[in-house]
Design goal:
With 240 residues, the chain is mostly helical. It has one domain. It is 75% helix and 0% strand.
Length: 240
């Protein structure tokens, strides 16, 4: 076999920029410190005991998923307006992260709900609307996986991404609009002062992790798109 028999099908994924690497390590260390603050310093809740400390992951994960889907909304609108490949890739990257965070939110909510409500799941408006958002974005990711034409995939995904993101305000306001057993929205201003610091720290920790993952996933998506374009060009060349 000659030395030129095997050619790469796309550009290699280069190491991330220095600021991305530093952000990744910083976000990880900040997350560990924030979790340690919540677990070791804040006292157990009077009613829930140490189960309350799920809040330090559950609530920031939910908040950050809202931010991720907000990015999807803005990037999807930008794609439909400008037909920008960059906007499409940003939307796809944010959607992946937001979907994972929403799944984590639902899982931790179920773990919290079993000892608190006596059931793993109930069709509460907050839980139901969150599950609907999760299903929409799972469908968004499936759509991107199964549609081959890049332009059609980006256009259809943008529409689904906008519809999914528009469900986020419904999720947020569901505990106020309908009778629900889920508590009202938690924030550092609504929880006891002994828990506010750890909640605020973990909110920033999740935000930093989101920014890092978005930067890494976007770079990987650019490589995937370039590889896809090169494969298409090669197929057209072979078929000519």
């Amino acid at each position: 076999m000659s030395a030129t028999a095997v050619q790469p099908i796309g550009p290699a994924l280069e190491p991330p920029a220095r600021w991305v690497r530093w952000l990744g390590w910083g976000a990880l260390l900040f997350f560990v410190a924030s979790q340690a603050t919540g677990v070791l310093i804040s006292p157990p809740d009077r009613d829930m005991g140490h189960l309350q400390k799920i809040m330090y992951v559950h609530v920031p994960a939910a908040w950050t998923s809202f931010i991720a889907f907000g990015v999807v909304l803005v990037a999807s609108i930008a794609y439909l307006w400008k037909r920008s490949e960059r906007a499409d890739l940003v939307a796809a990257s944010a959607a992946e992260i937001g979907t994972v965070l929403t799944g984590l939110t639902l899982a931790l909510g179920s773990i919290w709900g079993k000892p608190t409500w006596g059931v793993w799941w109930t069709w509460d408006p907050r839980l139901t609307s969150t599950a609907i958002t999760f299903v929409i974005f799972v469908g968004y990711l499936a759509l991107r996986a199964f549609v081959d034409d890049p332009e059609r995939r980006a256009r259809w995904s943008a529409v689904v991404g906008i519809l999914g993101a528009l469900n986020v305000p419904i999720v947020y306001m569901s505990v106020k609009w309908w009778r629900t057993i889920h508590q009202l929205q938690s924030s550092p201003s609504t929880v006891d002062s002994e828990y506010a610091l750890a909640l605020r720290l973990n909110a920033f920790a999740f935000l930093f992790i989101f920014v890092y993952l978005l930067a890494r996933r976007y770079r990987a998506a650019k490589v995937e798109r370039a590889t896809e374009a090169r494969q298409d060009a090669r197929a057209l060349g072979e078929g000519a």
